[in-house]
Amino acid sequence: MKKCTVFAPATVANVGSGFDVLGFALCDVGDTVHVKKSSTPGLVIESIIGANNIPSDPVKNVCTVAAQALLDCLEEKQENGYSFIITKEVAAGSGLGSSASSSAAAVVALNELLGSPFSRHDLIPFAMKGEALASGAEHADNVAPSILGGFTLIQSYEPLRVVNLHYPEELVVTVVHPHVEVKTVDSKRILKQNISLKTAITQWANVGGLVAGLAQENFELIGHSLHDVVAEPTRSMLIPMYEQVKIISREMGGLGCSISGSGPSIFVLTDSMEKAKNIADSLESLYMNNFISCDVYLSKINKMGCQVIQ
Ligand code: ADP
Fold first, then answer.
1. pLDDT value, residue 111
2. Quick count: other Cβ atoms within 10 Å of Cβ 28?
């Protein structure tokens, strides 16, 4: 095998009360990375399609940083090199795991080219090196669902323990990405560094309720448990029309809504495609009427994760 192309889905991380620990993969939207074996040693980014603000220097791009982490762990060192073509569909800074999609696709494609020396689970730490480059932290809440698919819980980092959660088949998500810039540094800086015991108790009751609601396919419990009392109160201030989005989605039968990643994208969970579609139309109108352009996605949860295309 001399080349391989992999699609890696965009992801919704945090998922309300599951701040920093939960995430799920979306269908149809994501990045595609094509990796080709070359006779010249080293890693090269041949082109980046669909974005003009992503660095093509291999030490600054998450694809090549994640790929290098994988190569460094091979027992047999490679004499040849690899070149990368990255097709970006997920805008960086959207809160939909843009850097994670690229890192995930790169390591899955490279692993495939090498004859799969690593399992999908083993690839997660390599993709996390890409996340460290993008955000300064080796977090897995986007890369794990992008690689593995489904709804995941990062239960621990040392050792890395990723739990694949059961969820109801009917779950549908509406995601709206208002085109406003929310700098990751700002959404990090705005977070409170300390929370009260009362707040902590509310949050862990909610995340427990959310995981149980998913497992029991109890939509009411899912809705009651999504509420995030840690990050949402401050981060939502950076997202225009956030309160209106909450009100509209509740009135239209959404189970609950919250910020995707660190924003500005917002997700709404529902139990039917019809409700999700109506919510999508209303949210699009809300932003349009306020002169803010947006992208809207409708999706079931993506079970497959990364997909080898060829
Ligand atoms: P997201 O949370 O959607 O991943 P971030 O803004 O947190 O978005 O991360 C994107 C950062 O990573 C940007 O600074 C971007 O320049 C950098 N980056 C490097 N390589 C890539 C890549 N292949 N795809 C996306 N972002 C990349």
1. 98
2. 13
Mean pLDDT of 255-262: 96
Task: Say what the pTM is.
Answer: 0.96
Q: Compute the distance from residue 50 Cα to the ligand 1 centre, in Å.
A: 13
Query: Which residue is closest in CA terms to ligand 1's atom 14?
Result: 134
Q: Which atom of ligand 1 is nearest to the CA of 60?
A: 19
Q: From the candidates 11, 64, 87, 131, give the one annotated as an active-site residue.
A: 131
87 tagged catalytic? no
Residue nearest to atom 22 of ligand 1 (CA): 99
Instruction: Report the residue among 14, 33, 98 best suited for mutation to probe ligand 1: largest number of ligand atoms under 8 A from its CB.
Output: 98
Residue ID of nearest Cα to ligand 1 atom 20: 61
- pLDDT-based confidence at 78, cuts 50/70/90? confident
Tell me the percentage of the chain whose pLDDT exceeds 90.
Answer: 92
Tell me, using a 6 A CB cutoff, whether residue 302 lines ligand 1. no
261 lines ligand 1 (CB under 6 A): yes
C-alpha of 153 from chain center = 13
241: left (phi over 0), alpha (psi -120 to 50) or beta: left
Q: Tell me the average pLDDT across 36-56.
A: 95
pLDDT attached to residue 181? 86
Contacts of 73 (CB under 8 A, 6+ apart): 118, 126
The domains found in the chain, sorted by start residue, are 3-165+303-308 (3.30.230.10), 172-300 (3.30.70.890)
Query: On the CB side of 59, how many CA atoms lie within 13 Å of its CA?
Result: 0
Position with higher pLDDT, 95 vs 310: 95
Q: Are 257 and 246 in contact (CB under 8 A)?
A: yes
Active site residue 184: yes
**CA dihedral over 289, 258, 19, 295, signed as positive or negative:** negative
How many Å apart are CA 69 and CA 213, to the nearest integer? 37
